[in-house]
Amino acid sequence: MTLAVExxxxxxxxxxxxxxxxxxxxxxxAGDTAxxxxxxxxxxxxxxxxxxxxxxxxxxxxxxxxxxxLRVYKYLGRFKQDQDFFAWxxxxxxxxxxxxxxxxxxxxxxxxxxxAGADEGAFAExxxxxxxxxxxxxxxxxELIARxxxxxxxxxxxxxxxxxxxGLPTDEVARIMNSSSTTVRSQISSARKKIKIxxxxxxxxxxxGRVS
Length: 212
Known about the structure:
70% of the residues lie in helices and 0% in strands. By secondary structure, the chain is mostly helical. It has one domain (11-211): RNA polymerase sigma factor, region 2, helix turn helix motif (Rna Polymerase Sigma Factor, Chain: A).
């Protein structure tokens, strides 16, 4: 039961995307509101999905996403063209999520499935040819992982989302988290172990309940 990594775009497609974003950023910094709207349209689905995964519920995720783009608008002039835009955006997103998590400690008690509203498949989607039973089992697995992730400390959850869901290299995750690669590796290892233990305990409890 593993977290799926998003399909990576070809290098030339990534380069074209970054070049287009850089043009939009230049226009937005110059005061072009339509350019900023295009930046939002290009990235808001990723931001919403990531905030949902980290915070665990739609209400907090929407509040976080709104705050992310307020900060992007405020600090866009500080973005350097040699930076990776999405790495910069993820850093803002993680910081916003940490701020909201500190204010709303009860978010873990209201955790909802990460499957609804996630972009491009936060976890692997069932293939069309799978029958209804296989699809149901797959959905249960995703929801179980989502509940397990809800129990993680915020930094571990952010690290594993960036590494195992977004597919970013560990060094890049460390830069986004303002941490060291060693610390991030430790957080990811701890998170994976906790998710594994949570899932195993849940399945044992469910199996014991059926026997009784």
